[in-house]
Amino acid sequence: MKIALLADIHSNLEALSACLDHARREGAEGHAFLGDMVGYGADPRAVLDLVMEHAARGALVVRGNHDDAALEEAGDEGMNLAAKRAAAWTREVLLPVHRTFLAALPFHIRHEGLYLVHGSASAPEKHVYVTDARAASASLARSGGASWVFCGHVHEPALYYTVGGARPLPFKPVPGVAIPVPTRRQWLAIAGSTGQPRDGNTAACYAMLDPDRAVLTFHRVPYDWETAARKILAAGLPERLAVRLRRGE
Amino acid sequence: MSKLPDVGDELDGYRVTGKLHAGGMGVLLTVEAPVDPGFPLVMKIPRLGYGEPAEAVVSYEVEQNVMSVLQGPHVPRYVAAGDLAVQPYIVMELVEGECLKDRVDRIPLPVDEVATLGAAVATALRSLHQQEVVHLDVKPSNVVLRPSGEAVLIDFGLAHHAHYPDLLAEESRNPMGSAPYISPEQVLGVRSDPRSDLFALGAMLYEFATGRMPFGSPTGPSGLRRRLHADPVPPRAIRKEIPEWLQEVILHLLEPDANQRYATAAQVAFDLGHPDQVVVTERGKRMMRAGLGTRLRRWIKAKGMEPEAVIRPSAQLANARIVLAAVATTHTNEALFQAQRDAVRRLLASDPESRLACVTVVKPSSVAGVETEDDVATTQAIKNLVHLRHWAEPLQVPVATISFHVLEGSDPAATVLAYARANAVDQIVIGAPPPDLPLRALMGTFATKIAAEAPCTVTLVRPPAPGRE
């Protein structure tokens, strides 16, 4: 059963829809949402409606720091001004049903060799960034021996892998290439951001795991960022958040 | 791990018919598949398990990974692999032909043979690099020549594929590969540079041409590091019958700094196929190793030598292309010539490492062997060569990156296409049939055929119609 892994959707309905379409065509049967479903973007309700639909059908969902901030103001600690303004706006527009859903989400999930977390397994509720091999190593060490650790938080796709006893090595995945990820090693994959890519490429990121064949594919999906950016401006959110989508930064 | 299968045994449906080789790293068995694939098969079983080095498992994984995605005549065809948890093996095409290590018994080899072998291996490396793979263990025992003369690279246990996490990229690992052949950057732990394979090819050609290894067969790290700054004894100082052009090619391949080496395998194959077009520099003429001062400077530089940023093999190829300009020297059409030059100039401007091959086709001289006819043919060839050079002159391309070829053939399009295929041309620039040409039908056929059958991009150049400017 192929599982589509989506992280950091950030209320970007256009990006989420494009990725879900793509994943369906690629044969995804399961879904995992790696946190930060909301924040930054203009469609928190529509995005959460979609995620909740998938969750009702068995999708795995973990909570991110922007999801925390959408529940209570204390959750936006450490965020920049634009993010705080977007979080405050999100708190206003969310319906009780969305808040109930977010509040019930776990910070990490262990499921058949998979470990899902928004930041690092080293402290799931603290949302630690995995930006280098040392952080990846710490996350893998606390994953309870999972073969596949999937996370988001960092918006650029990356794959860390263990060889021998040394620190994991970083790899920059090439979109569309099916990478063998045999369970005899540990792998930590950062799916890349669906709703706010930051590597200079505007296309939305997601990854697809085929657990039976043990292969992982990182995908890039072009989407209508024009509309997503326009909605951000129309909602009165900071202009900077719209510009980011146009530039992929 | 289970016991190794024997002759007569069956493994996942493959029946073992013979034992080819049993070595330190594993065994090679000939096998038969339940359904005949149409070519003979070999099963490679790695020696894994207790007491065997951990690298053996990783190396097996790498080989299986890389082989399963490689295509083309220059690698053994991949058929299947066994489950690593049960019994690892790779079933692949048994390449029937001569292993190049058999030629080592006869070294030094004649110059022509060295060039032919070198061009065949370079062509195979080009195919590999285009597929994002660096072999990293190029040596005579890892090359098999098919009866057609095509080279096949075998043993991908140390290879690097840019699309996959490099399982052999452990930070503090000792350099891997065969000491006499590995490149300086490999000694430093770099595994992603296709030019490392070109260095190894250079070491191989040096061995074939001179009968010696350019850097001996060092066993320790300091011996290996010597190639970061030392240059080998010039081949001509060992065997004076080695021509300057071949020494030029070999030493160009053995440059310690990868940036000073040939940029691509295709360019190496091109030079080895056109000795008369190799521009001989000081490299080809020198009869002594560099002076003490130069070596000292290089040694100091090597001390602080840091591996460069990772590059994808195909990115390297994209910057060093071979452009073919097919020039119809017999039809004087200055406007078309100019338009074709402009197109070529723009192509070359974007990547300075590109090469330009200027080609024209003449009818074959009808009766060979008759002296007067030969003379006529030679005169005609020279005349065409003069025209070609004249066409290219305004481009002011550096002499080392341009070559001129008068090809013989009754079908000009087929002749140009064959040349493009044989020389791994990346782009062909041809003129469109001009409207006022009496031979329009013929030229039209030429352009159509080139566009339809070329193994690469084709640019069809047409000068602006008169009066429209």
Count of individual helical segments of chain B: 15
Order of helices and strands of chain A: EHEHEHHHEEHEEEEEEEHH
Q: Globular, elongated, flat, extended or rod-shaped: what is the shape of chain B?
A: globular
CATH superfamily of the largest domain in chain B: Transferase(Phosphotransferase) domain 1
Structural class of chain B: alpha/beta
How many β-strand runs of chain B? 16
Total tally of structural domains of chain A: 1
Evaluate the radius of gyration of chain A. 17 Å
* Poorly predicted sequence stretches spanning 5 or more consecutive residues of chain A: none
Structure overview:
The complex is a heterodimer of chains A (about 250) and B (about 475). In chain A, helix 7 (about 225-235) runs antiparallel to helix 8 (about 240-245). Chain A is an alpha/beta fold. In chain A, the strands form two sheets. Chain A has a six-stranded mixed sheet. In chain A, about 35% of the residues lie in helices and about 20% in strands. Chain B is an alpha/beta fold. Chain B has helices spanning about 55-70, 110-130, 185, 195-210, 220-225, 235-240, 245-255, 265-275, 280-285, 290-305, 315-320, 335-350, 370-390, 410-420, 440-455, and strands spanning about 10, 15-20, 25-30, 40-45, 80, 90-95, 100, 135, 145, 150-155, 160, 320-325, 355-360, 400-410, 425-430, 455-460. In chain B, helix 2 runs antiparallel to helix 8. Chain B is globular, with a radius of gyration of 25 Å.
